[in-house]
Amino acid sequence: YIYDNVIMGPTRPDFFLYRYLCRATSAVAFMPDFCDDAFHVDIININLASQFFRHMTTSFWLALILTFPYLAYELWRFIRPALYANEKENVKWVFIFGTVMFFLGCLVGYLLVFPMTLRFLAGYQLSDLINNQISLDSYMDNFLMLTFIMGIVFELPLLSWFLSKLGLVNRSFFKKYRRHAIVALLILSAVITPSGDPFTLSIVFVPLYLLYELSSLFVKR
């Protein structure tokens, strides 16, 4: 069930994101048509043992992601005795916030970033003579990489708070480099979803920009 409906979900036209964007197509004039029921991605296996080893490695990564709160809690229990009372309270909220943001980032990676990347790249053709058949290893590598990377990216507010505590950044830093950040995030969004239409670009850019603004709220003035 997990492989067919969760991991392989973005390969089917009835995936949650595609159905939602299909309904929005009639309301937004400049967005591409997501109501293409013919969309599908052929996943093939080209190595004898790939499916077996992918089963093992995927189970490991999913277990690592799902047990992240417990691992964070055990780390907290390990360092707690060495902290003062006020430090214990601060660190406790750091672990809670970091865990929530990590899962939120993974969710954004799974529901938004990976499907949009897959939909573009799976349909891109250098030549009509070339058919896209995605290997299982290629699909799983990109799936796990983008999901996990987004989880790490969403720790930016926590990193900003930590750097602020060290006196390395302050709120004026984010204000000063806001325009630079916007350009960098637009470039990053274009790389993630290189379809060329402004709607697809914006649905990746907006969460990343909001993350930048959220980070600025976690630092000292």
From TrEMBL:
Q: Does the keyword Hydrolase apply?
A: no
Its GO biological process terms?
A: intracellular protein transmembrane transport; protein transport by the Tat complex
Q: How does it sit in the membrane?
A: Multi-pass membrane protein
- Gene Ontology annotations for the cellular component aspect, listed alphabetically: TAT protein transport complex
List membrane-spanning regions.
Answer: 60-79, 91-113, 143-164, 176-193
Give the UniProt keywords, A-Z.
Answer: Membrane, Transmembrane, Transmembrane helix
Q: Name one GO molecular function term.
A: proton motive force dependent protein transmembrane transporter activity
**Location in or out of the cell:** Membrane
Residues annotated as signal peptide: none
Output the PANTHER family linked to this UniProt entry.
SEC-INDEPENDENT PROTEIN TRANSLOCASE PROTEIN TATC, SEC-INDEPENDENT PROTEIN TRANSLOCASE PROTEIN TATC, CHLOROPLASTIC-RELATED
* Protein's UniProt name: Sec-independent protein translocase protein TatC
Q: Which organism is it from?
A: termite gut metagenome
